[in-house]
Design goal:
Layout (H helix, E strand, L loop, with lengths): L17 H8 L1 H27 L6 H22 L10
Helix pairs in contact: 2-3
Length: 91
């Protein structure tokens, strides 16, 4: 039997870690990472559009690429907007 200290389980009442708090409060961090995701979404979208502009038929892979690009861009916008914790519960 060991006497190792207990590790917190990370439940709902557990305090946020220091890096997590810094990310939520750091505007430049959110802007850089969110902007990177938006730009990567634009890059993936342009790669899919380039194939379609060359006259190739639209395939399932091209549609998946465009969908993935939209998801990347949306994820970037969510990171920049940071909606977590801003909504107030109506009672």
């Amino acid at each position: 039997m060991s006497t190792a200290p207990e590790v917190p389980t990370g439940g709902a009442d557990a305090p946020l870690s220091k890096p997590s708090q810094m990310f939520k409060n750091c505007w430049s961090c959110r802007l850089i990472s969110g902007g990177g995701l938006v730009l990567s979404g634009a890059y993936v979208f342009n790669a899919a559009r380039r194939v379609m502009r060359q006259g190739a038929p639209t395939s399932a892979g091209t549609v998946a690429q465009i969908t993935f690009a939209a998801c990347l861009a949306a994820w970037g916008i969510v990171i920049i907007a940071d909606p977590v914790g801003k909504a107030q519960r109506k009672t």
